[in-house]
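look at this fold:
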Amino acid sequence: MTSPSGQAPAADLPQRVSTLELFFLAGDVAFRRVLGIGTPSFRALGAALALAAWPVAVTVGAGAGIALLTAVVAGALAVEGRAGHDTVEA
C-alpha cells in the first residue's frame, strides 16, 4: 500500500510530524501575538527549526527525527522560560 506521494505510509511520517509541529508552534505564536502574551520569538524560532527534523528522520532514522524535534521544542520552551515571564495586565 502506498500513499499519494508513491512512498510507503511510514516513510512520510517524519515529514508529517515535523509539519504538524511547525503548524502547532506557528499557531501558538499567532495566538500569543494577538493576545499580547509575552514575546513569541523563541517559539517562532522553534517552529522554523522544527522543519530541520524531517530530513534528519529520513536520512538517519525516525527515532533521531523525533528526538531532534523533542529537543527543539524543549529548548525553545527552556530558553523562553529563562528569558522571563510576561503576564497579561488586567
Observations:
- The mean pLDDT is 76.
- The longest helix spans residues 9-35.
